[in-house]
């Protein structure tokens, strides 16, 4: 199953369309991956330079629009950033820095031409983190913007902690940025406090105040990072931030695989990416970080494509779409049937057939009954390869 087939399969895409209220043609949106910047802010994670270069090449091959990295963290980050800019990937390389002249100089030394500078806009950050007034926040940022612009940089400014800032100050700050010729703004929910409607309102507020394109960046402190990012998209954001396995400061941000598949399957947006690399990207990062993904993580978790209950197995053998909204092979994953105490007659027939035993009803029933005697957790699992599926699953099944 490739993505074309998925789109031709209107049944699958169309299922929840009416209730989800998605009637219009989806608006294109760009994806910025920040595994190398936000991801490396995860507690306990630090990539080697070689790993950073490999991750960036893979992300570029996968097809993200932009890759963010910070050259100011260490000498090795500086070198990584410089090497990646020199490599001339298709994805834009975004150098993430503070609103300081010295940081801009570092970005220039890397030969960056696209820079993202962040400055807090919430009173709590201005007062306790930076100890500056609102006026000073604008003055400092505009000074840095002028300096960066004088060097011909393409410039994004992030309104850090925008979700907790005074909406009037958000509007004022955004307008000052537009006046200073900033190219785009990033609107983050830095602490993960928003509900989707709140993120929608926040992005709309900025969109109604200025005409620059807008990024959204959502943290997952309440488990709402994906929902909020999608709300930001609905409000008109032009680029969404994500990281592989959702890595980032504290509990991280929007997960790349979830974002890509939600845009594709829920909104019907066909992205120009290699969908079948999603699992591989996740595995790569799990290997490099030593942090395995949660077993029940959507799409790429160990359990994402395991079917266990007898009724589920019976349905999936007949047609996987009964319980799968994203076909596993599309994202480089595999489907598994778990044979355990919940096995039913149809699952038993399927399984005995695999063993070449040509079961009759009686035999299958007995087998299923025997399985019920298994202790909970005494399972065996059959991971289906594409070839096995062709051989054994119902003819109508693709995927
Ligand atoms: C941080 C800030 C940031 C910036 C986001 C952005 C946030 O962690 O240093 O530049 O779009 O969440 O506010 O990650
Ligand atoms: Cu962040």
Structural domains: how many: 2
CATH structural architecture of the largest domain:
Alpha-Beta Barrel
Question: Helix and strand succession?
Answer: HHHEHEHEHEHHEHEHEHEHHEHEHHEH
Bound molecules: 3-hydroxy-3-carboxy-adipic acid, copper (II) ion
Q: Please identify which CATH superfamily of the largest domain we are dealing with.
A: Aldolase class I
Average per-residue pLDDT, rounded, comes to: 92
Tally of DSSP helical segments: 17
> Structural class of the secondary elements?
alpha/beta
In quaternary terms, these chains amount to single chain
Strand content: 5-15%
Helix content: 40-55%
Order of strands, main sheet, comes to 1-2-3-4-5-6-7-8
* Secondary structure tally: strands: 11
The CA-CA distance between the termini, in Å, is 5 Å
Backbone shape: elongated
What's the gyration radius in Å? 24 Å
User: How would you sum up the major sheet?
Assistant: 8 strands, parallel, barrel
